[in-house]
Write a structure and sequence with these properties.
alpha/beta; 11-stranded mixed sheet; 11 helices
Amino acid sequence: MKLNRRLVLTLVASAAVLSGAAMAQQRVFFGIATGGTGGTYYPLGGMLAQLISNKATVDGRKITATAEAAGASVGNAKLLGTKDIESAFVAADILDAAYNGKAQFANAPLKNLRALGALYPETVQLITRADSGINGVKDLKGKSISSGAPGSGQYQLVTDLLKVHGMARTDVKEDSSSFTQAVDKIKDGNLHATLITGGVPVAAVTDFAQSHALKIIPLSGPEVATLLKEQPYYTQVQLPANSYKGQTAAVPTLAVMAIWATHDGVPENVAYEVTKALYENTAIMGQVHVQGKNINLNTATAVASVPLHPGALRYFKEKGIAK
C-alpha cells in the first residue's frame, strides 16, 4: 500500500523529533553565568564551557556546557539562589555576603549556595583619563563614576572606598554602565572614572589604553588599611608595570579571589565531573587569558565561607587537598 506524501512527511518529522529527544536524553546540560563581554569572566567562562563539553561525561552521558554573559557577581549569586543556572563566577566577598545574608543580601541569605573551587585573583582598577585631575579617591568628590553594571560586585566596593575616605555615594555622580560602556564614556568625556574588578588585563581597559592616555588611581594608605579590616576577602597587591599601554609604573591596589560557584540542586556526580574537568586541564584555560594560568589546585579550596559542593569536595579529597 502506498503512503500519501503528507503522511510520509509527517512520519519523517516525527522520527526526527524522537531522534532529537533521544539525543537530548543522552546529554546533561550545564550552564555557566559569567559577566560582560568587556571583562575577564566572559572569555574564561567560554573556554571553561568548551573544556567541559570536550572532556566531561557522567553515567555515559556527555555534559554539554554553555557560557552565558550575565550581570557579574551579585546577579550571578542571585541566579544560583533561584537555581536558574547550574554555576557562575562570583567574587569571594560577594559569595560570602550572599551565603551569610550581608551587605546587598542583608536579611536574605542564599544558604543553597555551594562552591566548586577558587579560580584566580581579580584586581581592582580605578580607571580615569591621564588629564582628569583625579589622583586619589578623595578627588572623586563631585565627579561622575561608574560602579559597574547593576548586579556587579563593584557597587559595594565603591560604597566602602568612599566611606573610608570620608564620603558617601551622594558625594559622587553615579553611573551604572558595564565595563565597555563606562570606558567608552570616559573616552568621550561623559564620565570621569570607573571602578573595574577583573583579571588583568581587562579587555575594556586594554582597548582604552590603545587610544587614550590612561591613569590608574592608587588604592593604598591608612584608609585602605581600614577597608581591609572590614573586607577580609580583599588583599593589598601591586598592579604590575606595563599591564596596559602607557602604564609604566606598578600601582598599589586591591584584589579579591574569583570563585566558581554552584547550588545544592546540582547532582554530586555532575559537580564532581565538571570540577575534575577544570582542575585537570588548567593549562587550557591559560590559552584564552593569562589569568587562566593562575587557576590551580594549590588555591582551589580557598572558597570563602561557602561550603564546597559534595561533588567538588570528593574530587579534592581524591587529590589530597581536602579532608
